[in-house]
Amino acid sequence: MINFTVGPVQSSEVVKTVGALDVPYFRTPEFSELMLDNERRIKELAKADNSSRVVFITGSGTASMEAAVMNIFTKNDKVLVINGGSFGQRFVDICNIHEIPCDVLKLNVGQALTSDMLDVYNNKGYAGLLVNIHETSTGVHYDGKLLSDFCKKNNMLYIVDAISSFIADELNVKELGIDVMITGSQKALACPPGISLILMSSKVVEIIQNNNVKSLYFDLKDALKNAERGQTPFTPAVGTLIQINERLKEIDSKGGLEKEQEYIASLAKNFREGIKDLPLDICSESLSNAVTPVATRNCSAYDLFMILKDEYGIWICPNGGALKDKVFRVGHIGNLSMEDNKCLIDALHDLFDRGILK
Ligand SMILES: *Cc1c(COP(=O)(O)O)cnc(C)c1O
Q1: Which residues pair with 233 in a beta bridge?
Q2: 5 in contact with ligand 1, CB cutoff 6 A
Q3: pLDDT of residue 193
């Protein structure tokens, strides 16, 4: 099986090897050390200010999205959500559940965000902006600088779900003035699912300290206090946190963030060029390195997903809802090689020769 989905993705040998070991007890100086090392390395990869903090949540990416929103904003705030697909909609749902007033900038499938669209929302008294910098459901990567300028001009907190973009695309937290950056273990971190993390500016840490969130598990005050000594309030996914540490060290030893990013970008470029002669259309106005969204013309995208899985042992990522038969996505994150790319490109050509891809 070759896995080209957008997460969980394939892990490297070293990550799999430590995943096979017994999970140790964690209230120890050794585990605290590892957690502080994880925090330090995440801050470095995000190019975050040294005064920022990281908490690790045992829960998938959505847990950190919800925790961040409910700890930072209240009923007395108003926020703006960029909604370009199912992950943008998730931020809207979170605001609604927690009764945080929100306005929604809705985009069409595949549409890039422009400054004209944002202009309408100037001077509206928003406390913050919520955005999935790469809307993974449609494969649209927003302009982080454009949103940064908008937030600075309007004195808004800049909250970024970078779950599928972190490591894959350039993102400079300090330069862009990002107040919160969220990511998860199963995307470009290429570890099993179960851990997500919230990186916060000192400004946000202070806001959280002064808010009274109604939650035991998602009280970030508690998480921040414990994280000072490299611990968590409750038992975390210890094994996954150890795998994350191995993965972060591996990125470092293989030449660092830029090398990793270049490699992901080269896989994406190679795939995009490899399907040019097929009746397929890349359907995003602004692509991330992490994913290529592909529209079919005269055949079902979902059927292609099933046939590739059952007959070729290759997993691409189907879309849901209205896009089910129209669009599939190919991920370029995780432990993938150029030979893996060739297998997928060859399989798509074979489907074309068989008259299935048309
Ligand atoms: C994967 C992803 C998430 C998190 O989804 P979970 O299933 O909760 O891990 C959130 N936002 C984006 C943009 C994603 O790609």
Answers
A1: none
A2: no
A3: 98
213-228: pLDDT as tens digits = 999 999 999 999 999 9
Containing H/E element for 241?
Answer: helix 238-253
Q: 299 by DSSP, 3-state: which?
A: coil
CB 136 near ligand 1, within 6 Å: yes
Distances in whole angstroms, Cα of residue 236 to Cα of each of 41, 95, 197, 307: 19, 26, 12, 38
pLDDT digits 0-9 by tens, 9-23: 999 999 999 999 999
Q: Which tens digit of pLDDT belongs to each residue from 282-301?
A: 999 999 999 999 999 999 99
Instruction: Provide the token pair at 150.
Output: 């908008």
* Ligand 1 centre distance from Cα of residue 62 (Å): 6
3-class secondary structure for 175-212? HHCCCEEEEECCCCCCCCCCEEEEEECHHHHHHHHHCC
Residue 328: which pLDDT band, with cuts at 50, 70 and 90? very high
CA 121, CA 125: separation in Å to the nearest integer?
A: 9
Give the pLDDT of residue 191: 98
Burial per residue of 181-215, b for 16 or more beta-carbon CB atoms within 10 angstroms, e otherwise: bbbbbbbbbbbbbbbbbbbbbeebbebbeeeebee
C-alpha 166 to ligand 1 mean position (Å): 12
CA of 48 to the centre of ligand 1 (A): 21
Relative to beta strand 79-83, strand 327-331 is: unpaired
- Ligand 1 centroid – CA 61 distance (Å): 5
Residue pair 319/327 in contact (Cβ under 8 Å)? The answer is yes
- Note whether 295 and 283 are within 8 A (CB): yes
132 lines ligand 1 (CB under 6 A): yes
- The pTM for the full model equals 0.97
H or E element: which one contains 164? none
Is the CB of residue 184 below 6 angstroms from any atom belonging to ligand 1?
yes
DSSP annotation string for 104-135 = EEE--TTPPP-HHHHHTTTTS--SEEEEESEE
SS3 2: strand
Tens of pLDDT, residues 164-178: 999 999 999 999 999
- Would you put residue 7 in left (φ > 0), alpha (ψ -120 to 50) or beta? left
